[in-house]
Sequence to fold (526 residues):
Amino acid sequence: VNIAVCIKRVPETGARITLTADEQEIDTSYLGFTISPHEECAVEEALRLVERHGGTTTAVTLGPPAAAEQLQNAVAMGIESALLLETERSDWDPQATAAALAETLRDGGYDLLLFGNESADSGGYQVGIRVAYALDLPIVTGVKGITVADGRARLEQEVATGMDVYDVSLPAIVTVKEGLNLPRYPSVPAKLRANRKPVDAKPVERPASRLEKLRLVVPEGQGKQAEILGHGADAAPAVVEVLQKLGIA
Amino acid sequence: MSSLVLIEPNDELSLQAITLAQSLGGDVRAVTIDGPYAPSAWAVSLVEAAGTDHIVAPGSDRGNEVLAHIAAQLDLPMAANVTEVRGDEVTRQRWGGTLLEEVRLHAERQLLSAAPFAFAPSDAPDAETLHPDLSGAVQVVEQVVPDSGGISLADAKVVVSGGRGVGSSEGFAILEELAALLEGAVGCSRVVTSAGWRPHTDQVGQTGTKVSPDLYIACGISGATQHIAGCKGAKKLLAINDDPEATIFNHADYAVIGNLHEIVPAITAELRKARGQ
Fold:
């Protein structure tokens, strides 16, 4: 199976989000970046499928030049080739992102295109689906189990009652969720090798945005004042009192 | 302009979506869909039924999925997890709701999903039922229902959750004991599943399960946005942490400062004593 994995560079936000002065971005002066969590599992799954069935793996991202770092992370994990669709501004809307990805993936000869179900930062829930329509491929989302055999994929989607199972013919698009697997950590030598290897980059032009970001806002209510019930084990009676008051104990 | 709302039976998020649709002004029509889940076919039938109306969906996995199919079919922008609408300006959630974004939709009609618990539920409406044509559509071929093992994390009234501070897989024994006593479920943070101490099915967070218990007890959890996105639906939050500066306390109603390995067993013992066990 020849697999392309579409990933996104996102900041590691930690505990508190602060914004840049123009309210357009998260202030990342003190933050590292990572592959969005669902997509890290997509990278791992691509590696496992190819280890089992043979084939090729490619990682693709659309983002600023710095997004090469996340492609190198994917290469350090074991992905063979990487392509950066290089943008000047970081935030494309989902429609524009999907159109640029579809254009690039169209003639790649891939059997399986893996996406995250939704990105950690913008959470639009739509890029994989839009690419599926652009390429006229079947799509299944929210997948936590993939089995490939005889040109078909059996896909398990987590729902409240258990798993819904889908069966599609390849080529197909699958969006995955964290929990599909536990991604491997790349070794230090693999990281060094990946960082020395230049990433293929192709500049792309941003079309007019139809979901135009005006500003970011940190929601109120983050500075709650907790009632301190006590310190250490001595607080236990006060905790039980609260449990009784809440009707839980 | 009027709007069409996709609702699912016995689904609170659907009733919240109706409230969002009502905030757009104009008439609101609710529709449900009959038959097995097949998002592309559901989308086709909704597009047909909507005419030129706005289309609103609940902010559930299915709601967002069907709406994205509609957006792709119509080549229109879509705003997921919306909290407020002011004409063509919309506020929506990013980062699982720990950050908001104001956007302008450049389209003659709006495709919106309602962020969970951002709107009060409306009364259950009279809904029209659509019968989509499923031929050729990707659809569910089998449903796997696991043997129910205890109380599910998503439905639990009490969740006792552990983070890095628990220290090991074995460290969760004291959380399990307290959870059992409170007839609750055990949860954990992403650090814990990444370390392999608990399965991912126990993970509460933006990329795990989103819970809304009466009480969430966060033990040794620092309060990263990833985690808060999963537990902010809790009615009350009790945080136990040895770091008085931990961010989790800014999201907590009750705080106990100190070592969870001493505090959690003490709570369990006190609870047993109070019950005369």
